[in-house]
Design goal:
two-stranded antiparallel ribbon, 10 strands, single chain, alpha/beta, 8-stranded mixed β-sheet
């Protein structure tokens, strides 16, 4: 195979980002005919179509998405080299591309990622939120270095990867003070008939909560269901109902949302994972996250 032509790759990258040859032409100040010809030559050399037409726009083929993931890395590294040559920093910037499952409470995600910010090296972090299946697909095509999730990689996932348990903890229940005064019974009896805010269907905590309610013979009134944990907490702050969250962030939630602790249980366990395509974690930022999780974040709460 001929050596990779980086000018062709750059044209491809610009078209992929712009969504059409015409828009890329305006940004590059090159005629559309030139870009089109270079793209065709690039595809011919690679032996695969990288784009397909979708109306007036172009969309990437599966091969195109793979090439784009590498092109993103190549040109990000080129930009970093430019900055190094201009500013001459003493050390190279560490990049961390992390996917955060939308079912993972964002406060937990921050607590997990926080140790990476304390690395001695300069860190550039790129966080993407989405469905676990989508993030795993991006992980497989090297668009992400790691995925943070409240569940291990499902056996049905068509991705080769490894789930690294960062830690686990019990569950705490919260509510507005005025709501607690309406249900003064001892925990967990004060949940009986009380309004409750339930995590969305993608959250691993949802099924565990429902199972625990059945085991305790409790029948809270489901007042709302939320895919976004921050939105659920905001409704809890407004007094719309009690809600549950991992004990590891209990103090932070009470301060941030001005809610009271209703009770805690270790009968429900929340687990948190870093999912990577490597059997052994090697990225310095991910290693810092893993070490801090076991030695600090979950060390004093039974995890």
């Amino acid at each position: 195979m001929p050596a990779l032509n980086y000018k062709h790759l750059h044209y491809f990258w610009m078209v992929a980002k712009a969504g059409s040859i015409a828009r890329a032409s305006e940004q590059l100040h090159i005629t559309p005919q030139t870009i089109s010809g270079q793209l065709s030559l690039f595809e011919e050399i690679q032996g695969e179509a990288l784009f397909r037409k979708n109306g007036r726009n172009l969309e990437l083929t599966e091969a195109g998405r793979l090439v784009l993931s590498y092109a993103d890395d190549i040109f990000a590294l080129g930009q970093e080299l430019e900055e190094v040559l201009h500013h001459r920093p003493t050390e190279r910037t560490v990049q961390l591309r992390v996917g955060v499952s939308d079912a993972l409470p964002k406060t937990v995600a921050y607590r997990l990622l926080e140790p990476a910010l304390k690395l001695p090296q300069t860190l550039r972090i790129n966080c993407r939120e989405g469905k676990l299946e989508t993030l795993l697909a991006d992980l497989a095509t090297h668009k992400l270095d790691v995925v943070m999730s409240d569940s291990a990689m499902p056996a049905s996932a068509n991705v080769r990867g490894y789930s690294h348990l960062l830690g686990e903890c019990g569950i705490s229940f919260f509510g507005k003070r005025s709501l607690l005064e309406q249900y003064p019974q001892r925990f967990p009896l004060n949940l009986e008939g009380a309004p409750f805010l339930l995590p969305g269907e993608d959250a691993a905590l949802r099924s565990r909560l429902l199972q625990w309610f059945d085991q305790q013979d409790l029948h809270p009134r489901i007042a709302g269901e939320f895919d976004d944990s921050a939105l659920m907490s905001a409704f809890g702050q407004a007094g719309a109902g009690f809600f549950a969250a991992p004990t590891v962030i209990a103090d932070m939630l009470m301060r941030q949302y001005d809610v009271q602790l209703l009770g805690q249980t270790d009968d429900i366990r929340e687990q948190f994972y870093a999912i990577s395509i490597q059997r052994k974690l090697t990225h310095p930022a991910v290693l810092a996250i893993s070490r801090a999780a076991s030695s600090d974040l979950f060390a004093h709460i039974g995890g």
